[in-house]
Request: fold
Amino acid sequence: MSVLIKNGQVINPATGLNAVMDLYIEDNKVVEINASITKDADEVIDANGKIVVPGFVDLHVHLREPGFEQKETIETGTLAAVAGGVTTVACMPNTNPAIHSKEVVKLIQEKAKLSGKAKVEVVGAITIDILGNKISPIEELLESGIIGLSDDGRTTPDESIMKKAFEYLKSKDLPLMAHTEDMTLARGGCMNEGERSKALGLKGIPNAAESNIVKRDIELCKEMDSRLHICHVSAAESMDHIIEAKKEGVKVTVEICPHHFILTDDIVNADDAYSKVNPPLRSKKDVEKMIEAIKAGHIDCIVTDHAPHEEKTKKVGYPQAAFGISGIETSFALSYTYLVENNHISLMKLIEMMSYNPAQIIKKSVGNINEGEIADIAIIDLNASYTIDSNKFYSKGKNTPFNGYEVKGVVTHTLVDGKVVYRR
Reply:
């Protein structure tokens, strides 16, 4: 199978390339990048006026399978991914059963081979059933091919377990992907603690619930000389701890979701739980801090924390509703519209944060479309705009607070291993 992409603006952060080029793909690799390629190909794509970029790598995705197939499946979740230009997803372990054994890892890997549209990397659970009290068989999980460990959705309170996890991961140079939430402070909360929560009469979650555990996990990582990846940062105080740790040389990386640098808790309405997410939408001050951290290069990558839910778990009272936003199909357009169009960062930097950087964090040879590299590619029309309508999502989850938002950047083609898996 060969594909020739003509006349596109090729942007590849790994090499700094940013020029109108042709790109020739054979089998699963980029064979040639040149100003003009005249080779015959099985398919020719005219990318005139569009950008050609490495497929995005989303380190934080809930595919829900096994156990919660009514919310999402590997097939629907990866179809949603490629519709958003995402060619590699890291699936989080809070499934049922949790990803705490080699059998569950194998099940996901086999299902991904059969029905996955994007590549699926697996994050293992730190503890059995993500209950925080008994460590998973981590050696077995590592041998099965996981790319990191997490108890996403619930912080592991036992520091001795965290230290053991850090120790195992250090031998493979892989990250512990930390959900940072002090449950003694967060318990019962359903939105950010602030003026809006008081006005609505809803129990709030303070910034300290996140920042206290960020600080704890940084100290544990430093002590173990291992690698820490902070999931879905949202609080200004958390960023202060992360910036200081990076200055000290602690091996810490950090991700952010579009909703945490675009939305504030001012949009929360008690009768619409589409805005309910964990960590919660924070204050204007926190959002401004996140944007400044992105501009300064303190935040390594943009992810989605794609958390699809069926309607019945969202169409209830705000305190009772499920946490989570379905976001993998809109992440690029939102990030481009609110970061690049607003002159916070360059287009090159955005592509780096969504492809090359996350690939480096999990040590995978993706996120780079140089000659000889795997042909995972997204073609995007930056001049095209659209109105977000979750009824058109490929994901089973229609739960997004961005319905009705006007955004720019339409994915027209996505290639995985040199094959077109999505075309608009």
Observations:
- Residues 55-361 form a domain with the TIM Barrel fold (CATH 3.20.20.140).
- The CA atoms of residues 258 and 335 lie 6 Å apart.
- The two ends are 20 Å apart (CA to CA).
- The chain has two domains: 2-51+374-423, 55-361.
